[in-house]
Design a protein that fits this description.
Elements: H1 17-21, E1 26-31, E2 40-45, E3 51-57, E4 65-70, E5 75-81, E6 89-94, E7 103-109, E8 118-123, E9 138-144, E10 149-157, E11 163-173, E12 182-187, H2 193-208
Antiparallel strand pairs: 1-2, 1-12, 2-3, 3-4, 4-5, 5-6, 6-7, 7-8, 8-9, 9-10, 10-11, 11-12
Family: Belongs to the LOR family.
Protein name: Protein LURP-one-related 8
InterPro entries: LOR, LOR_sf, Tubby-like_C
């Protein structure tokens, strides 16, 4: 049985992006644990054991804001729960989320699974005039986060008025892993690996709330 490596090679850190540029899917191993002592978060590494992403929090319970960092601790995306909202909403920002960081998506949790299979939906920000969503791709997430079985679909509008759906990422249990804290994140070339990991963070936050 192959041993699962849970201590990434920081010295040879890589974003695993060269494979994506060649039109190949990127396979990442997600460890639901921080590298910091007594910390909470995630550690993500590639198939060579190189550190790719890290998430480190010290809050008890579910923190209102989580920052996805690269191997060197540079903020890539910030996931922030929206305050004073009737619906359960999270906002995804570039970088550390400080002003004037652009907002990438608004994420909503779906509690009514009788009407749709979608667990959560990421929509682009509203247009400047407030009349609708800005042009861009919407993402739907289906499956079970607790079971570590998820599919992420990119949804775009067609000229005929319909929608096109394409699977762009999956989460699955990792072979030989004991428990749900180590799992695989497979990202297709059409999606940023960082955004796929932000979706994992979102689902983790939604399930903890």
């Amino acid at each position: 049985m192959n041993k699962i490596k849970v201590h990434p090679n920081v010295a040879a850190a890589s974003l695993a992006l060269p494979a994506a540029e060649k039109g190949e899917a990127v396979s990442l191993t997600v460890w639901r644990r921080s590298l910091l002592f007594n910390g909470k978060g995630f550690t993500v590494f590639d198939t060579n054991g190189n550190l790719v992403f890290r998430v480190e929090t010290h809050s008890r319970g579910s923190p209102r804001e989580v920052v996805l960092m690269d191997a060197h601790g540079v903020a890539i995306l910030t996931v922030r729960r929206k305050k004073l909202s009737l619906a359960e909403e999270w906002l995804v920002y570039d970088g550390d989320g400080d002003e004037p960081a652009p907002r990438r998506f608004t994420a909503r949790r779906n509690r009514n699974l009788l009407r749709t299979k979608s667990l959560a939906r990421l929509s682009p920000p509203r247009s400047l005039d407030g009349t609708g969503d800005a042009p861009g791709c919407r993402y739907d997430v289906e499956g079970s986060y607790a079971g570590r079985s998820l599919d992420m679909f990119a949804c775009t509008s067609c000229a005929s008025g319909g929608n096109q759906r394409q699977r762009v990422a999956t989460v699955s249990r990792k072979e030989a892993a004991v428990g749900p804290d180590v799992f695989r994140l497979m990202v297709e070339p059409d999606l940023e690996p960082a955004l796929a990991m932000a979706v994992v963070i979102l689902l983790d936050q939604m399930n903890a709330s």
